[in-house]
Specification:
Elements lengths: L1 E6 L6 H15 L3 E6 L13 E4 L9 H18 L3 E5 L1 H10 L7 E6 L7 H9 L6 E4 L2 H10 L5 E3 L14 H7 L23 H14 L23
Parallel strand pairs: 1-2, 1-4, 2-3, 4-5, 5-6, 6-7
């Protein structure tokens, strides 16, 4: 099966990582996969060995000519690659994939929403007007799917819980240290980690409130083990 994955960029972000992981997994299963990227190349991008084409589209409002040229470039590649499935991710890529379908009516178009909030009423209107050009819209969480069902910009919406492939973990002496200190293994929380940008979209206050509810059920959740931290001592400057 030939699959064309459409992304806004390959920048180092969570949505891009998820989309690339799905594309590479499909390639490992024997499918022919190609990437179509709207934006020009960035200094920092997720590495990949998949075939990719950059449409070099800038801001539509600032440079509408680049959008028209990119749309033509995308249609040309679509006719050459002849995909059976066009899988797009996030608003701009979803919109472009739907417009490209006009030149490839035989391909199945799947739009993926990676956030609960994909934009204001104008974007929701654009989604609704172009919904007929997409066979299925998939949200990466139940919360996102429920919100878009309420807003009704899509006819066919389903939830797909995004995840990452597990990797082998390095050996840790933490369990042995716990036993030596005479603590019960089940009562010690080894690691809680949240990595992300400190922005409203990441909603860290909600995470902190959720952890407060966890502490009510498991008071030891906040204890853990002290981790020694070595710091270099600054040499005192000689007095002048």
């Amino acid at each position: 099966m030939r699959i064309m994955t459409v992304l806004t960029s390959l920048g180092v972000g969570g949505a891009e990582k998820q989309a690339l992981a799905v594309a590479e997994r499909m390639a490992k299963r024997g499918h022919e996969v190609a990437l179509v990227v709207l934006r020009p190349r960035l200094p920092e991008e997720w590495p990949t060995a998949l075939e990719r084409v950059h449409l070099e589209i800038g801001g539509v409002r600032e440079n509408p000519a680049s959008f028209v040229a990119g749309l033509r470039r995308g249609r040309r590649f679509l006719r050459e690659f002849r995909p059976e499935v066009v899988h797009s991710h996030s608003f701009h890529a979803n919109l472009l994939a739907r417009l490209l379908r006009i030149g490839a009516p035989g391909a199945v178009v799947v739009s993926t929403v990676h956030n609960v909030y994909e934009g204001g009423w104008m974007r929701m209107l654009v989604y609704r007007l172009t919904d007929g050009l997409s066979d299925r819209t998939v949200a990466v969480s139940e919360a996102a799917a429920e919100r878009f069902v309420r807003l009704r910009p899509f006819q066919n919406t389903s939830a797909w819980c995004a995840g990452t492939e597990s990797t082998p973990r390095s050996f840790s002496r933490m369990p042995r240290a716990v036993r030596r200190r005479g603590r019960r293994w089940a009562r010690v929380l080894l690691s809680w980690l949240s990595a992300g940008r400190v922005t409203p979209a990441k909603d860290f206050p909600n995470l902190i409130r959720a952890f407060g509810l966890v502490r009510k059920e498991a008071p030891d959740a906040s204890s853990g083990l002290p981790v020694p931290c070595r710091t270099r001592r600054r040499r005192s400057q000689p007095k002048r």
